[in-house]
Write a structure and sequence with these properties.
heterodimer, A: mainly alpha, B: mainly alpha, Rna Polymerase Sigma Factor, Chain: A, Arc Repressor Mutant, subunit A, 2 domains, 8 helices, globular
Chain lengths: ~210, ~180
């Protein structure tokens, strides 16, 4: 095919295009609804949640999840647009681990050294490692399907960041059910769980986000 | 932002989003040599350059919803071009052929091939099935207009455009699936 002929062919197919942001927004909303529904059906709020609303340790958990989700979602949108600047959203995303480390430092200062290990190990680390990836799955699938409409020039990275966004949403929800409130626990097990979801996202992205 | 090429290309693309076919054709025609130069800088040669150019133009077309009117257009174009050029290089190294430069003395010269034609793209276009494939081949290879195609296939012009759209999407997917 001659390039000029291809150009004529493409010009004959010129029709208005819906911006990809709206496809991503729809996909994100569907995924969020599915993940929230899954949480309410399968997990539910912890019974003492009302009493916990003045505990900074408890409040830090959904806050960290939300920070991770917002930063990663913003970065996802940028990664779906070729050539779009990403630095601003990388900074927003980096705020989540920085905040988590600050909470860890405060906790280490507040607790005597012999209480560190029990706080880190908690009661339900395995449940956390299973719950966050399970809750993240619908959100991750929705985000990946939304990003397929975009054009990520780094598919594996885009999938990994979609995984972080899904893990952030899942963590913010699971935090409302989980009774391990120490930042030492959260920084260890929540991070590990987010890493699992992100790795799954990277593998899926490498495979399904090519275009 | 004040770069004249940037302003020119983005105004053509804005006109294209409002349905101006002429502006769109002019934009793609101007993008082709820019992408060709980039492909050559990456070390592609011969028909691979034109394959990368055509694949980039096709991707720009299919993914034009990923350009936002308030963003600069050149980084968008060259990010897509870079992605597609690397794809073409992957395909090439996978099917690494014998380097013919050692035999240039004894090989007959190729009959004046048009340098803006492709090999890989043609193979994929040939694989398109059904009415969509026939329409892409008629319009893309034979240079038939949408009106002529609608007469030849006994379809409305709208139906031809729908089939063309489907065929081009399929073409882009097939090309992308050739890299793994």
């Amino acid at each position: 095919m001659r390039t000029d002929d291809l150009i004529d062919t493409l010009a004959a197919d010129l029709a208005p295009r819906r911006p990809v942001v709206s496809a991503l927004g729809t996909a994100g909303a569907v995924g969020l609804a599915a993940t929230v529904a899954l949480f309410l059906v399968g997990w539910g709020l912890r019974p003492d949640i009302v009493a916990m609303t003045d505990s900074p340790r408890f409040l830090a958990k959904p806050l960290l999840g939300a920070m991770l989700a917002i930063g990663a979602l913003g970065l996802c949108v940028r990664l779906a647009h070729p050539g779009a600047p990403v630095r601003g959203w990388v900074v927003v995303l980096a705020a989540a681990p920085v905040a988590a480390l600050s909470f860890v430092a405060l906790e280490l200062a507040a607790l005597p050294a012999e209480a560190w290990a029990p706080a880190l190990l908690g009661d339900n680390s395995l449940l956390c490692l299973v719950s966050i990836p399970a809750l993240a799955l619908p959100m991750l699938l929705a985000l990946l399907s939304g990003m397929r409409r975009g054009a990520p020039v780094r598919p594996a990275l885009a999938g990994a960041v979609a995984g972080l966004a899904a893990a952030g949403v899942a963590a913010a929800l699971y935090a409302l059910c989980c009774t391990d409130d120490s930042p030492l626990f959260v920084a260890t097990w929540y991070t590990l769980a987010a890493g699992i979801v992100s790795a799954v996202g990277a593998i899926a992205g490498r495979r399904y986000l090519r275009w | 932002m004040t770069n004249p090429v940037e302003t020119h290309w983005s105004s053509l693309m804005r006109a294209a989003s409002r349905g101006d076919e002429g502006a769109y054709r002019r934009l793609l025609t101007e993008l082709a040599p820019a992408v060709r130069a980039k492909a050559a800088r990456y070390g592609l040669s011969g028909a691979d350059v034109e394959d990368a150019v055509q694949e980039t133009l096709l991707a720009i077309h299919v993914k034009r919803g990923t350009w936002r009117e308030d963003e600069p257009i050149r980084p968008w174009v060259f990010a897509i071009a870079g992605y597609k050029i690397v794809d073409q290089m992957r395909r090439r190294y996978r099917h690494a052929a014998v380097d013919i430069s050692d035999f240039t003395e004894i090989l007959p010269a190729e009959a004046e091939a048009d340098p803006t034609t492709t090999s890989d793209m043609d193979r994929v276009v040939a694989r398109l099935t059904g009415r969509a494939g026939e329409i892409v081949r008629a319009i893309g290879m034979e240079g038939v207009s949408v009106t002529e195609a609608s007469q030849r296939f006994g379809m409305s012009e709208g139906a031809v455009r729908v089939a063309l759209h489907r065929g081009l999407r399929k073409l882009a997917d097939l090309r992308a699936s050739m890299v793994t």
